[in-house]
Amino acid sequence: MKIFKNKYKSTKLVGIELPKHVAIIMDGNGRWAKKRKMPRSFGHRVGVEVLRSVITMSSNIGIKVLTLYAFSTENWARPEDEVGVLMNLLVEFLTKEIKELHENNINIRFMGDVEKFPKKCRDAIKDAIELTKDNTGLVVNIALNYGGRTELLRAFHNMMDDIQNGELQKADVTEDTISEYLYTKGLPDPDIIIRTSGEMRLSNFMLYQGSYAELYIPETLWPDFKEKEYEKALLEYASRKRRFGKI
Ligand code: FPP
């Protein structure tokens, strides 16, 4: 297993203000493969390698939460074989890497409706959650069958149920209460959302949590988003002045 073997050595990030929560829309695998006259699945496979290096680096430099958009509610519309490849890569990643992730104190979480996934995926997900649930290091939050609007709808339904059965009073509902009903309950909001491949859209990702996140959208396609690229994103974050709507 390769993960965590190469400790990140750059000193550029020492002493700078790092985000607590980095959220990434990993985009451009298909285009990357097409440029090389390779099948899209090859792009996804290389994409997993990059994902591994981003997890390693995040853990090594002390990021608290890393959210990764791996499969959206819209991705079901892709050809069946591509959906299958993505599911297989997920199971492969979770089964092959889980031991090392666990040894490195990583806490794996998921957000989205995974009930629609095949049993082998659900089992791998359950095992990963169970094994790493008490870990106190980097939280790796993987978005699967996730959509921001559906997440909000689910939150409002659950909240209305709780109001109806008397567990919650309407007058007590605040912005923080809404956060408590989202998949990210207990996690800080993302400080930065990175979307690779230059697409200037949020694509239904973390609509509530991302309200004040810095956006970073490099042209780089996800399979090329190596450590240097991630470092550039973090340096850019540190150079921005966050005002949260104030002056
Ligand atoms: C976007 O590229 C990428 C995805 C839809 C999937 C991302 C998934 C992985 C990197 C691997 C599987 C996940 C895990 C957690 C092991 P695209 O296909 O939309 O690229 P394009 O826009 O160039 O077509």
Strand order of the largest sheet: 3-4-2-1-5-6
Report the average pLDDT across residues.
Answer: 94
Reported for the largest beta sheet, the result is: 6 strands, parallel
**What is the helix content?**
40-55%
- What do we call the CATH topology? Undecaprenyl pyrophosphate synthetase
Strand percentage lies at: 5-15%
CATH architecture, please? 3-Layer(aba) Sandwich
- Anisotropy-based shape: globular
**What series of H and E elements makes up the topology?**
EHHEHEHEHHEEH
Distance between the termini: 48 Å
Task: Assign the structural class, choosing from mainly alpha, mainly beta, alpha/beta, alpha+beta, or little secondary structure.
Answer: alpha/beta
Number of helices: 7
- Give the low-pLDDT segments: none
The first-level CATH class is given as Alpha Beta
Ligands, ions, cofactors: farnesyl diphosphate
Give me the count of strands: 6
Oligomeric composition of the shown chains: single chain
**Which radius of gyration do the C-alpha atoms yield?**
18 Å
